[in-house]
UniProtKB/TrEMBL annotation:
CDD domains: BKR_like_SDR_like. Belongs to the short-chain dehydrogenases/reductases (SDR) family. This is SDR family oxidoreductase. It comes from Roseibium aggregatum. Pfam families: adh_short_C2.
Amino acid sequence: MDLGLKGKKAIVCASSRGLGRGCAEALAEAGCDLVLNGRDEKVLAATQSELEERFGVSIQRVAADVSTRAGQDALLSACPAPDILVNNNGGPPRRDFADLDRDAMLEGTIQNFVTPVELIQAVVPGMKERGFGRIVNITSISVKMPIEGLDLSSGARASLTAFLAGVCRQLAPHGITVNNLLPGKMDTDRLRGGFERSAKLSGRSKEEVRAQQAAEIPARRFGNAEEFGQACAFLCSQHAGYITGQNILMDGGLFPAAF
């Protein structure tokens, strides 16, 4: 399927590895010129080189913390007029809610609520002028169901979801869509770190923890960055202009709901 994205410009935050990289790969495959972002310059450069070689699109990299004003300015300097914004950022580490102090809560809120809103504010005027825009926010299944130790991340991402529910409808007349992708248990570094934590707490091996968690998913497996990225690319495509304000679960059926 031709997604109609050849020559479009995309900023993909936190895209040197994991789900962000999966989104960057799918958009590059569709013909988008990219700005990649990450904190590790070496990993980021390797990702840029690989994607340039595979897809032949124009790629810039910005090694920066997207949660900072300087990091955001660097991204927007590299791509002042993006057609696509994929908001992604690492979340706060697992921690019992009773151990969260004010500074930790503010930092988590900045990471997973304030930062994506600020970037949306920055890119929307240009999207309005061009009559086209695609914004995809990578949030989490934890917006819909609790995950032990991720209360701060869940709260910040749920706040973003509620905040944008009205915003997306203000932007729809201008050809701009805003949707959220909610990953469940995806085979990423963050998930594997959870295996290690659960193994230590339970006295089991990481392999046992992994097998048990996979068995709890109706699909009987964890998701991967490639399929996640393809879903993101579709939401950014010319075919998805009538989809906005949606929270799309990618969880293999883990969240039990009829609606």
